[in-house]
Amino acid sequence: MISAEVIIHPQFYDLDPMNVVWHGNYPRFLEQARCALLDRIGYNYEQMLQSGYAWPIVDMQIKYVRPIRFAQVIVVRATLTEYENRACIDYRILDQASGEVVTKARTVQLAIAAETGELQFVSPAAFVDKVKVLL
Questions:
Q1: Which ranges in 1-135 belong to alpha helices (H)?
Q2: Whole-angstrom Cα distance, residue 72 to residue 107?
Q3: What range defines the domain where residue 17 resides?
Q4: CATH number, position 34
Q5: Rounded to whole angstroms, how far apart are CA atoms 133 and 120?
Q6: Tens of pLDDT along 117-135?
Q7: Domain count, the chain
Q8: pLDDT band at 32; cut points 50, 70, 90
Q9: Distance in angstroms (rounded) separating the CA atoms of residues 75 and 6
């Protein structure tokens, strides 16, 4: 499938009182990788709206394997695993130095018509066609 990666340097403001990255910051890291993936496909949020669709996240799962600490450089990899009826993206957050997986995650997005909010039961051709070019 199609993947993209971003490198993130967690900052002091990302930490919680236990000096590890606060769990609520992980979706922000996933979003950065998701945007890199959507850019690679050529169908990021601007292109979605231009094609007449929005893609809200309807499910997110995060498995915190090991904590991320201040100044630990991480690689966030996003991989599109489903695209025909919904967009499913699997994520791996890795410690850059060791390659060890520190977090696993998954998001599910569904297409809705931007004007009416009507759920689409199949992914729009504007998205599917761009994915197929890269497969």
A1: 26-41, 45-50, 125-134
A2: 24
A3: 3-134
A4: 3.10.129.10
A5: 22
A6: 999 999 999 999 999 999 9
A7: 1
A8: very high
A9: 6
